[in-house]
Amino acid sequence: MSELAPRPQPPGPVVVLEPAGDGAEAARQLASSLGLALVREPGGCYALRFRDGRLELLAPHPDMGPLSVDFLNGEMAHRLRQAAHADEGLARAVGARGDPGPRVIDATGGLGRDAAVLARRGCRVTILEREPVIAALLEDGLHRGRGGMGTVAEGLHRIRLVENDARAYLASCAETEGPDVIYLDPMYPERRKSALVRKEMRIFRAIAGDDRDAEELLAAALVAARQRVVVKRPTRAPSLGGPAPSGAVRRGHTRFDIYAGACLSG
Predict the structure, then answer these.
(1) What is the architecture, at CATH level 2, of domain 74-263?
(2) Which of 40, 72, 128, 223, CA to CA, is 20 to 30 A from 107?
(3) Confidence band (pLDDT; 50, 70, 90) for 224?
(4) Which residues belong to CATH 3.40.50.150 in the chain?
(5) What's the mean pLDDT when you consider all of the chain?
């Protein structure tokens, strides 16, 4: 189930494309809910469009194809099919050892890939995403994915999407029974050679900007989490400012910093 709040105007230059035939009403409804202009031509802007039964985000750059969320096909589907048995560093860091797994808040939802892996491992996951355009793409991908067959689709039913600022949401959790685990994946530092940056990261920066409040979000998570906070970082990157992690799990070029025990301040 998803809980999408009324959506303010996003900070990036985004429009909704109006198709000439089928899908025009869906496009109008999307533009109205997001507070975006409905146009026939993108005019150099980022543009949302419905195509072949899915929602896509087009970038105004010829070298970047459309971005959408798809859990049932391609690389992501393969990862999810293997997730129940693979030695996922993320699952190990979160403590997802069986079904049911811990209750997890993914406070930096993005395209929902890591949340889907955790749900596949038996976790109940609440995804927080504050950027309305990204939330719309994720909601579309979850809706289509849940309509599929098999264990991948079953896992997606364990995910709840909430469009909200994570710091505000975690502050409310701190006043009640918080989640077992809070997972943070702040945007990695931008590389100088833009060709090396993955397509979705370039789009994320254009739409939502950099994660300049990552350390504040970590502080809020340390108050709200009951068992641990996990932060995804590049292997050679420093930990976020605050208390030193109590442990870490390393896989390839990625490190998962774990904050538990005395690190938690709730």
Answers:
(1) 3-Layer(aba) Sandwich (3.40)
(2) 72
(3) very high
(4) 74-263
(5) 84
